[in-house]
Specification:
Blueprint lengths: L1 E5 L6 H8 L17 E7 L2 E11 L2 E9 L8 H15 L4 E7 L3 H6 L3 E9 L2 E9 L1
Parallel strand pairs: 4-5
Antiparallel strand pairs: 1-2, 2-3, 3-4, 5-7, 6-7
């Protein structure tokens, strides 16, 4: 069973690094905007196995640094965490939620109602496309 809880930003850093930026320093995982967002953790048997950060600008919500531990990927944890933040954003008045999706993750987001915007870019050696879902 998966439990989702709001967590402090620094609790996201280790999993962010492990999954998204292996080889980086832990202190490099902190984002300037971390203190202005919501951060959620997915726990399985009291172990933090998924993290995501959510930032609000009016009725527009962006989620960033979505990471699921390698050893529990493809077990539905990402789906549960994504649905949780979508529901949270809607409850907070969202009209749109979006992300900079790694190209390798586009298929995942398409399954859950996100659409491709055609806006592609590269950053730090990764290719991304902006994906969004409107309500």
């Amino acid at each position: 069973m998966i439990q989702i809880e709001q967590i402090r930003p620094e609790l996201t850093w280790r999993l962010r690094r492990q999954v998204l930026y292996p080889g980086s320093k832990l202190y490099e995982m902190e984002m300037d905007e971390d203190n202005h967002g919501y951060h959620f953790g997915a726990f399985r048997d009291n172990e933090l196995v998924g993290v995501v950060s959510l930032f609000q600008s009016g009725t527009d919500f962006q989620f960033r640094k979505f990471a699921i531990s390698h050893d529990v990927q493809h077990k539905g944890i990402g789906r549960v965490l994504l649905q949780y933040i979508v529901d949270f954003a809607v409850a907070e008045g969202a009209t749109q939620i979006w992300c900079n999706a790694r190209v390798t993750a586009i298929g995942f987001y398409l399954k859950y109602g996100f659409v491709q915007t055609g806006t592609l870019f590269s950053k730090n050696g990764f290719d991304y496309e902006i994906m969004e879902k409107t309500f």
